[in-house]
Amino acid sequence: MGYLQAIITGIPMTLLVTVAGFTLGAIGGIPLALARRSRFAVLRIVARTVIEFLRGIPPIVWIFLIYFGIGTGAITISPLGAAIAAFGVISCAYMAEIYRGGLSAIPAGQWEASAALGMGHRDQLSKVVGPQVLRVSIPASATYAIGLLKDSSIAYTVGVQEILFNADMQAKQASDAIVPFLYAALVYVIITIPCAWAARSLDSGLRRKVAR
Amino acid sequence: MTLPATRQSVAIELDSVVKRYGDHTVLDNVSLSVREGEVVAIIGPSGAGKSTLLRCINLLERPDSGRITVAGHAVDAGSEISNKELVAHRRVAGMVFQSFNLFPHLDVLRNISLAQERVLGRSRKDADKRSKELLDRVGLADKAAQYPSRCSGGQQQRIAIARALALEPKVMLFDEPTSALDPELGLEVLAVMRELADEGMTMVVVTHEMQFARDVSDHLVVMVDGAVLEEGPPEEIFSKPGHERTRRFLRAVLER
Amino acid sequence: MSLSDWAENYPALLSGLWVSIRVTALALGIGMPLGLLLALSANSPKKVLRYVTIGVVEIGRGTPALVVLQIVYFGLPTVDVTFSSFFSAAIALALTTAAYTSEILRGGLQAVPSGEVEAASALGMVNRDTLRFIVIPQGVRVAIPPLMGFAVLIFQASSLAYTIALPELMSQAYSTGSSTFRYMSILGLAGLMYAAITIPASWLTGRAERRMARHL
Predict the structure, then answer these.
(1) Could you tell me the CATH number of the domain that includes residue A99?
(2) A47-62 per-position pLDDT tens digit
(3) Taking a C-beta distance cutoff of 8 angstroms, is the pair B99, B93 a contact?
(4) Contact C185, C5 (CB under 8 A)
(5) What pLDDT digit, counting tens, does each position of C137-172 carry?
(6) Do C58 and A193 touch (CB under 8 A)?
């Protein structure tokens, strides 16, 4: 039973990487999404390229690039900092795409109605359309956050002491190495499944709301 | 008491059929008898249970009580029924749906051939040959290699009729076959159905086409609220409805 | 970042990329058919089978691919089941693939209009035939774009096999980096190689999506 206790001590770190990375993405994704549908073609192309590369290169490569690539230069960077930064920038790209999807789900009538009321583009976006986009984006964001929680296990490769790191430590000293890993799996499943169910019922609930 | 001049045998017999969804009784003790070669039209307001009745005949819906006999094969509501029996029962009752339900990923010929191969055990070659004959019969020989999405609604419904005929059914069931169609496309479907009736096919047609019901059917059934309100020769019911409810319904549909 | 680093080291990375591609292909080749089986039994009318399947799928989706990989490579040998790093990676990714694609395929199967299933049974076709000729061909077709998207993710996930010393692209990059201390340029090149496959692949996925949307 010592295994499970040791593994559980990794939960806060897993949550920290996940929440910090997600928060960075949820904020950074907004300007990126706006740039993605900017009036200026250059901005659009840059935003699109950034998104494609952030999503197209595996997270582990980003973590290593930041930890070893940047970290061996003038600045040093902690494993935790590298992991949060990596998941943060990746999340910016994914969240930008989620916001973009949300934006296209808002009926044109909302833009027209707010324009008819004499609102400027900025007000339309921040007062009328933006809040609706955030609301429509909740289910997809929740699903993404759950995926991110599982991906945060990759942080163990640079030595962040999260769930898998602790399981690995236990396994290295054990003759029954499979057991700590199975416990780790169990912990992830116990955390993610209720979240996934909540996200799904949120999704179908919202879908009903939007459909009517 | 006079017996009909030629006493044909019974093709479909419904005996006190009841169907409920939860508390709601959709079919309330319906009995109906269709003779071989007879064309029966079922009319009535929506929600009267017409479609459910049709779907019970080929057991797409299982009734809660009563007995259903098709071409001598009887099924009691409560009884267990094997897959084999179910298949045998459905083979003799061809079904045509309001929404055609063609298989969109198969070309027209394959739509008609598939069940012949899988259900009748025909070879692909024989099935295709038969399918072509049937397509010719519904006037669509040139559509064999097309996909359903490239055909008009009327053409799709004629293909669906050919598909059902391919299993050589003893009776044909039509569930509002023209309701999803523009009037002029509906006419080409009705023409095929009329031909089929002339050839002596036993047919049960749920329809809103009063003209068709009047001209083609031998027997008219008026359903309201899950029960048969009245039935008889169409001419009689159209000219002298026996119930106020029938009169109101007919006036509503004819004035449209 | 220097081009000479790239010129010197690209053959090692390319050989790693080839391993990444092979392990991905094998994982998808095993995982997707397994996913279809899971999807079918998750739609089964038999209650017990359905719930057991849904449970298995939830566990498979809830467990990070990296953890599955550790279980297969480091865990299974302690119960006397040993695979090479290549097969360990393929099996682990295949299990993850099966869990995820079963959900994708289940969605596809459910998208087949019930009217067609009804028409098939009205024609007297047995359930097995209806599945084989009507539901599966159409359900799989609908699922193709999301399956393509998922395949891209699994290709990326093959980089996790670096942790079990499979000489795929990521481990080649890391070991070259650690011997030359040119992490930035070597990892950068590895990233570009991944991107050279994933970005065109997601364009194709987008195209497939739009085509599908047009046809439905």
Answers:
(1) 1.10.3720.10
(2) 999 999 999 999 999 9
(3) no
(4) yes
(5) 999 999 999 999 999 999 999 999 999 999 999 999
(6) yes
Task: Residue B56: list chain C partners with CB under 8 A.
Answer: none
Could you give the dihedral angle defined by the CA atoms of residues A186, A192, A197 and A201, in that order, rounded to the nearest 10 degrees? 180
Q: What is the mean pLDDT of residues A188-198?
A: 87
| Total tally of structural domains belonging to chain A | 1
Contact B90 C121 (CB under 8 A): yes
User: Chain C residues with CB inside 8 Å of A60's CB?
Assistant: 159-160, 162, 170
Return the residue of B nearest to C124 by Cα. B87
DSSP, collapsed to helix, strand or coil, labels residue B54 as helix
**Which one has a higher pLDDT value, C50 or C216?**
C50
Q: Is the pLDDT of residue B80 over 90?
A: no
pLDDT digits (tens, 9 = 90+) for C88-120: 999 999 999 999 999 999 999 999 999 999 999
- CB within 8 Å of B137: residues ≥ 6 apart: B162, B165
Mutate to test the interface with C, among A7, A45, A68, A195 (most CBs of C within 10 A): A68
Q: Which pTM value belongs to this model? A: 0.86
How far, in Å, CA of B166 to CA of B115, rounded?
8
Per the structure, the complete domain to which residue A144 belongs is given by: 12-161
CATH class of C2-215: mainly alpha
The nearest CA of chain C is from the CA of A189 a distance in Å of 5
